[in-house]
């Protein structure tokens, strides 16, 4: 249930078709864990809080989804840890051509990805990726299955 203060705070999202008051209440009740490269994770956490998500600092908490943010390379150890939470894992990755966002496929094999060091130092890449990541998290929470901007990848 949203308070009057919540309705005022999230008014711009509430008027978006498909969100409304009930959708915003679901967003506000959702628990997300943010991890990844420091700068990217900080951006993602900021955007997620602004959208109304409850940020969990304990990865062992019951989670709605995990956001892996700003990684220039999908780290095998990190991904092995987060794929075991039993909830959707969304990510953004900085690539030489820009930002790639998606959802890790269930049972993904964890093979090394191309290292793209030197890309993504620009704050604009992190902001763009974080915004897309949070939009994807909203789509997951509201069960929007036909969102074209989110795609699944196999890590092979």
Based on CA atoms alone, the radius of gyration comes out at 15 Å
Helix amount: 25-40%
Uncertain stretches of 5 or more adjacent residues: 110-120, 147-156
The percent range for strand residues is: 15-25%
- Structural class call reads alpha/beta
Shape: globular
Order of helices and strands: HHHEHEEHEEHE
Quick one: CATH class?
Alpha Beta
Question: Which features characterize this protein?
Answer:
single chain, 156 residues, alpha/beta, Rossmann fold, 6 helices, disordered C terminus
Written account of the structure:
This protein has 156 residues and is an alpha/beta fold. It has one domain: Rossmann fold. 38% of the residues lie in helices and 21% in strands. The protein contains six helices and six strands. Strands 2-1-3-4-5-6 form a six-stranded mixed beta sheet, with helices on both faces. Helix 4 (38-51) packs across helix 6. The longest helix is centred in the last third of the chain and has 19 residues, at 123-141. Mean pLDDT is 77; it is low at 110-120 and 147-156.
């Amino acid at each position: 249930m949203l308070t009057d203060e919540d309705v005022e705070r999230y008014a711009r999202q509430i008027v978006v078709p498909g969100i409304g008051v009930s959708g915003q209440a679901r967003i506000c009740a959702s628990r997300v864990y943010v991890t990844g490269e420091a700068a990217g994770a900080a951006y993602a956490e900021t955007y997620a809080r602004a959208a109304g998500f409850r940020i969990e600092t304990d990865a062992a908490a019951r989670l709605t989804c995990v956001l892996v943010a700003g990684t220039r390379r999908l780290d095998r150890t990190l991904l092995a840890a987060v794929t075991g939470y039993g909830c959707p894992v969304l990510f953004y990755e900085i690539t030489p051509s820009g930002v790639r966002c998606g959802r890790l496929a269930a049972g993904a094999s964890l093979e090394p990805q191309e290292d793209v060091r030197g890309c993504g130092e620009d704050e604009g890449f992190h902001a763009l990726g974080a915004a897309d990541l949070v939009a994807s998290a909203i789509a997951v929470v509201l069960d929007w299955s036909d969102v074209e901007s989110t795609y699944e990848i196999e890590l092979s």
